[in-house]
Structures are given as structure tokens and as C-alpha cells.
Design a protein that fits this description.
By secondary structure, this protein is an alpha/beta fold. The chain has helices at about 50-65, 90-105, 115-125, 145-165, 180-190, 250-255, 260-270, 290-305, 335-340, 355, 390-399; strands spanning about 1-10, 25-30, 40-45, 70-75, 85-90, 130-135, 170-175, 195-200, 220-225, 225-235, 275-285, 305-315, 360-365, 365-375, 380-385. It has 2 domains: about 1-80 and about 140-205 and about 255-350, Alpha/Beta hydrolase fold, catalytic domain (Rossmann fold, 3-Layer(aba) Sandwich), CATH 3.40.50.1820; about 85-135 and about 210-245, no CATH class. The chain is built from 11 helices and 15 strands. Strand 7, helix 5 and strand 8 form a beta-alpha-beta unit.
């Protein structure tokens, strides 16, 4: 087995025009001899699957058991949790609040920026307080959410087709939990002729607003010395100014919706064959990936003409091996989940979009999104266009 790490340029943030600060890193495991039987993208989400050792063991298992190549991409805003490189920053007002609470509870004064010492003192004094913090992804990145991350993976596929040893390009599979599975669904949307299958554990259908830094609900709760901090990743978006370039409107939301029937139908029409297969599992009680939303997504995919399968996992289905917990993510063994479905994956009857040079477009409300694929870098170029530009221009000329 060959194992290397490669760097390539990621996709630009075409929605917001923000520059990328660094290349993306691609961890690759590959059969040492012969043509690889396909490619598996192991896409980490926000949980323990971002750990290097976990993803490496999974890649090795895939190569050893199937002869396929396996890659993991450290995509845009990959380091978006404190346990994998993100920073934690407290708002000055929240910091002042904690210092005030410390004074009220007789906590010995410490440097206000020393959050850990402040938290220890408040917990020791029995203070029942919480505060909001901002999680800052490493490398000065921002949370665009989903779109750039999916394009990063399509860039990696294009790069591997052009530069890697030979592999079966009609057998490209995504394996991912939660946000990783969601990225896979967006990849299939932007490149309908590329993926053979998505093996999805507990991915959401629409972006949770708290994950975009929007609203009052926290994205995660951080335990620091026993004190609870409500955290949200620094977002690129706002909902406070409709005229702002980064206003998160219905267009932005629809392109990120992987259960919207008009887009699923357009995706099926753009596929050069029968389209990707979808194998999905989800807990019957999940506040992040709601089972009713997953049922709707599965029905939408089936209505659009895709082969889609959804298993709703109940408490009685927790076996301690494949599924270990009846919660978001199911404590799922991705190795066992992969083994469960990979034998049912059928190769595509067409070349991938980068080889075909496909152009795929989706109309939203006021704008549309267009994705143009090519066999050379940057492999996929995306743009937002005004659906009514021609009419507006005609009105301007007439005026």
C-alpha cells in the first residue's frame, strides 16, 4: 500500500469573493500494484472522525479489502472545532459579564483573558453561569458551509483522475457521517455524473442555522473547567442586512438544500446515466439530522428517479458493533457501514463530469448557480448568475 499526503489548490469562494489562505491537504492510500478498483472519499464531519488516526485506519481498511484507492481531504474550514485546531474567542461583553460574576461570588481576581482560571474560580464558587464564545477555524478561514467544501472534493477527484495511477473512474464512492455525508450529497448535486454512490450516516438535509452562525441556538457546548460555554463557528454570513453581499437569503439556502425536489429533478436530468445510488442511515431520534427530514429527502430522491435507501435506526437496533448509541451519528462504525454497502455499489455507465466537461445549473429564486467541469485544473468553476438579468437590461434600455 502507498500512503502519501498531497497539496492542491482548493476551490475559490465564488459566493463571497474571499481568497483562500492555503492549499488543501489530501491524505491518500493506494494499492501498490495494478489499477485501483475505484476511489472512496472518506469525508470527515465535525466529530471524532477528524482524528488523523481514525481516518488513516479507515483508508487502509478500504484499500486492503477492496483494492480501491481511499482519500481524506482537509477541506476549507476543516479545523472548526477546538479539539482539532480551532481557537476559542470570547466576546468582550461576555468576558465582562464573567468578570462581574466572579466579583459577585468572591472569586479571587485573575487576568480577565485567562478563561480557564476564570472558569475554575466560578465553578469552585458554585456560580451557575454560561457565556457565549466564538470558535475561529484555523488558518483564518470562515464558515461558508458546504459549498466550497464540496467543490474542494471535486477538485481532488479531478486532480486524481489527471495525476494519480490508474483507477476505475466509474466507481467513485463517498463515505461520511453528519457533515461529511452532507458534503457528499452536495458533490452529487454539483457533479451529477461523477459519484457512483453515497454511503451516508446521519447527514442533515438543510444547513442547521446555528452551524451558519445565525440565530440564538449554540452550535456546540464547550466544557471548560466545568463551566459551559455556548459556541458558534465564525460565519461568513449575515441575516441582518438584506443589501449586504454576504446576506444569507433563500438563494443561498436552496443551493445548500439536498432535499429540494426541483433541484433533485434537475440533477437527475443532468446525469448522463441513471445517477448515483444513495445508502443512508439515521437515528429515529436525532435533533441534528431529523428523521422526518431524512424520510423526505429519501422520498424526493426516489421521486426524482434515483435509487435511494434509508434505514431508520431505533433503540432496539443498537447492536454495539455497527451502531453503538441511539443519538446523532449513532456511534456508527464507518468501517462496518462501508462493508455493509460497498458490495451493492454499481459502477456508473458514464465518465465523471470532469472528463465529460459537463455544465450543470440550478435555478433558485432571484439567482442561479452554475458549475462547469473540466479535465484540467481547477477542474470545476462555479458562478452565481442573475436569473432576470436579460429582462432587467431590456427595461434599462427601454427607460
Amino acid at each position: 500500500m502507498i500512503e502519501i499526503t498531497r497539496e492542491i489548490d482548493g476551490a475559490p469562494d465564488f459566493e463571497l469573493g474571499r481568497p483562500r489562505t492555503r492549499p488543501i491537504q489530501v491524505d491518500i492510500a493506494w494499492p501498490r500494484e495494478g489499477e485501483a478498483a475505484g476511489l472512496v472519499l472518506v469525508i470527515a464531519g465535525f466529530g471524532d472522525d477528524t482524528a488523523a488516526g481514525y481516518s488513516q485506519a479507515l483508508r487502509r481498511h478500504i484499500v486492503e479489502t477492496t483494492g480501491m484507492g481511499a482519500v481524506s481531504v482537509r477541506y476549507h474550514a476543516f479545523h472548526a472545532r477546538p479539539n482539532n485546531g480551532a481557537g476559542v474567542v470570547i466576546d468582550p461583553k461576555a468576558q465582562a459579564y464573567l468578570v462581574g460574576e466572579a466579583a459577585l461570588h468572591g472569586v479571587p481576581m485573575v487576568e480577565g483573558t485567562d478563561l480557564r482560571a476564570l472558569a475554575r474560580g466560578l465553578v469552585a464558587a458554585g456560580a451557575n453561569v454560561t457565556a457565549r464564545v466564538t470558535i475561529e477555524p484555523a488558518h483564518d478561514e470562515h464558515q461558508n458551509f458546504g459549498v466550497i467544501q464540496a467543490l474542494d472534493h471535486l477538485c481532488v477527484i479531478g486532480d486524481l483522475i489527471e495525476n494519480a495511477p490508474a483507477f476505475d473512474t466509474r466507481r467513485i464512492v463517498v463515505l461520511g457521517s453528519s457533515h461529511g455525508g452532507y458534503i457528499g450529497h452536495l458533490m452529487a448535486k454539483f457533479a451529477p455524473s461523477t459519484l457512483a454512490a453515497i454511503i451516508d450516516n446521519s447527514s442533515y438535509v438543510q444547513p442547521p442555522m446555528c452551524y451558519l452562525g445565525i440565530g440564538d441556538l449554540p452550535e456546540m457546548v464547550i466544557d471548560m473547567e466545568g463551566l459551559k460555554f455556548l459556541g458558534q463557528v465564525r460565519s461568513a454570513w449575515t441575516v441582518g442586512d438584506r443589501g449586504a453581499a454576504n446576506f444569507y437569503d433563500r438563494d443561498r439556502d436552496l443551493i445548500r438544500d439536498v432535499g429540494y425536489l426541483p433541484h433533485a429533478s434537475a440533477m437527475r436530468a443532468a446525469a448522463a446515466d441513471a445517477g448515483a445510488q444513495y445508502f443512508m442511515v439515521n437515528a429515529s431520534a436525532d435533533s441534528v439530522s431529523r428523521p422526518d427530514a431524512k424520510r423526505r429527502q429519501q422520498a424526493v430522491l426516489k421521486r426524482a428517479g434515483f435509487e435511494s435507501e434509508l434505514t431508520i435506526v431505533t433503540p432496539q437496533d443498537i447492536d454495539g458493533e455497527l451502531f453503538k448509541a441511539h443519538t446523532h451519528g449513532l456511534g456508527c462504525s464507518l468501517k462496518r457501514l462501508f462493508d455493509r454497502y460497498i458490495g451493492r455499489v454499481r459502477p456508473r455507465m458514464t465518465d465523471p463530469d470532469s472528463v465529460l466537461g459537463s455544465t450543470v445549473a440550478y435555478e433558485c429564486v432571484d439567482r442561479g448557480y452554475r458549475f462547469q467541469h473540466s479535465a484540467q485544473a481547477p477542474y470545476v468553476q462555479a458562478e452565481v448568475y442573475d436569473r432576470f438579468a436579460d429582462q432587467l437590461e431590456e427595461q434599462a434600455v427601454a427607460a
